[in-house]
Specification:
It is a single chain. The protein is an alpha+beta fold. The protein has two domains: about 190 residues, no CATH class; about 100 residues, Alpha-Beta Plaits, CATH 3.30.70.3040. It is built from nine helices and four strands. It has a four-stranded antiparallel sheet with strand order 2-3-1-4. α2 packs across α9 and α6 runs parallel beside α9. The longest helix has about 45 residues. The two termini are about 25 Å apart. Keywords: Cell cycle, Cell division, Cell membrane, Membrane, Transmembrane, Transmembrane helix.
Length: about 300
């Protein structure tokens, strides 16, 4: 396509948006609502996947010591754990320290369990040499005397992946439905434009204009609709994610898990929303043009 022809198509697509007025606004709104929900769903899914991966790759095993275990028995347990082939290091955390961690994470209500009422266990935090060895360390630790339980991130990850699968399933279904609605509204908007210019299109056909020459201004109009409709969702998702990231980062500070950093992540989400907007806009226009370009 020649540059002068493409420039004409761009100018014509902008004029058409202006002529359609409120119908164009309706199409913008459909894209805006769609991409706002899609952007939010993508942010949730990608961060849940990130945390699930962090949990699964956590090399720490928390070995909970039975209540009533004497210091000598506790030391004997530590020696047994240290002799395991896959163990890199062992750190002791008393039930008092565990309570402090719980209070720091969940609030002062847990101070009720201070002193003799503390129901928590003393814990050995065993670090495996490699993430793949975590399960083996946990299984061996569970068979040892004076061990109440041996927990590792993989157990939580399995449950979390079930949640992720559900979010992905329903999120995908809702997103596809919203995209279909957006394409439908954009298609109707473009149809009104075509109907108002059907005489012009007929004349262009009579003088030999090709289908692609007639089609391009409408496709560009749909693409602009998708692009402009993506601007507000990008702003809302970016501001909302930065705020939520700052809020939850403080809660996750005491753990080994982190949300995706806003920088690169938001750029990727923004580009994806722009591309989705442009694509559904162009598809809506292409669908509406098929009937009018049949010979």
């Amino acid at each position: 396509m020649k540059a002068i022809t493409f420039k004409r198509h761009l100018v014509e697509s902008f004029r058409s948006l202006k002529r359609n007025g409120w119908m164009s606004v309706a199409a913008f709104s459909a894209v805006t609502v769609t991409l706002l929900l899609v952007g939010a769903l993508l942010s949730v899914i990608m961060n849940v996947n990130k945390i699930a991966s962090d949990i699964e790759n956590d090399v720490q095993v928390r070995v909970l010591i039975d209540h009533g275990t004497s210091p000598q028995q506790r030391e004997a347990l530590k020696k047994k754990l240290s002799r395991l082939d896959n163990v890199q290091s062992i750190k002791f955390s008393s039930k008092k320290q565990e309570l402090k961690n719980v209070v720091g994470s969940y609030g002062n209500d847990f101070k009720l369990f201070a002193g003799d009422d503390n129901p928590l266990n003393d814990v050995y935090i065993v670090k495996a040499k490699k993430p793949a060895q975590t399960i083996a360390v946990a299984k061996e630790a569970r068979t040892m005397k004076n061990v109440y339980a041996a927990k590792y991130g993989g157990t939580s990850a399995k449950k979390l992946f079930k949640v992720v699968a559900g979010v992905q399933k329903w999120g995908t279904a809702i997103s596809l439905l919203l995209l279909f609605v957006a394409v439908f509204l954009i298609s109707n908007t473009i149809k009104i434009t075509i109907l108002s210019r059907r005489n012009e299109i007929a004349i262009m056909r009579l003088v030999g204009a090709t289908n692609s020459f007639i089609r391009w201004p409408f496709i560009l109009e749909g693409a602009w609709t998708g692009l402009f409709g993506a601007l507000l969702p990008i702003i809302v998702v970016d501001i909302g994610y930065v705020w939520i990231h700052g809020l939850l980062s403080a809660s996750l500070a005491s753990t080994n898990y982190r949300l995706l950093s806003p920088g690169v992540f938001l750029i990727q989400i923004d580009i994806l929303m722009i591309l989705i907007g442009i694509i559904i806009g162009a598809i809506g226009s292409g669908v509406s043009m098929r009937k009018f370009l049949k010979i």
